[in-house]
Amino acid sequence: MTIGLNEHLITEILNSPNAPVLVERVKAILDKEKEKREAFYNQITEQEKAEFINGEIIIHSPVKKSHNEVCGNLLKIIETYTIENDLGFVGFEKILIQCTRNDYEPDLCFFNKTIAKKFKKDQALFPIPDLIVEVLSKGTEARDRGIKYQDYQNHGVKEYWIIEPNKKIVEQYLLNEKKEYQLELKTKTGEITASTIEGLVIPIPAIFDKKENHLFVKSIYQMK
Asked: pTM (2 decimals)?
């Protein structure tokens, strides 16, 4: 796991004569937040899509049809391909990813085989995946492009896709040598090559159109 530190902020605190007081105040706040996070783990149910972000519990509203269709299409493609090639585990919506401070339930995520084989049947908290996909909605876009983008990057999620279901645009971000996200692809046409799922190349229309999706999923069985 790679955690990016804001050196400028740290230097600013250390240069302040109130540094010890500031650190103690932050520690007290984080200690209370830790208690709230433990309660969150005990309170959430399988029926809720909930996340813990910077000390706050976020309960998600029901998704729009376009959001649901894109998530379903991608799940069919990636899960079918992963199973056919024995590559790992695909998580969908209710998989709770545990970061240093926050807990997220991505729309879709992929864990390679080495990580996935350690999972237990009753596992409820999951480590950092190789790939995360977030499908934008009006209520989540700020977080998907903000705190989640930053957290996924800092925790070493190798590949991050952001999808705009209404505009039918796919953005692909990959970690570069500096461990920072670099925009690899932004398109509504052509194909997207998954960096973390060996050999998977998805036609963009198969992400948004059910008929194109059905045809591509059928073709996966013929790829071997």
From this structure: 0.89
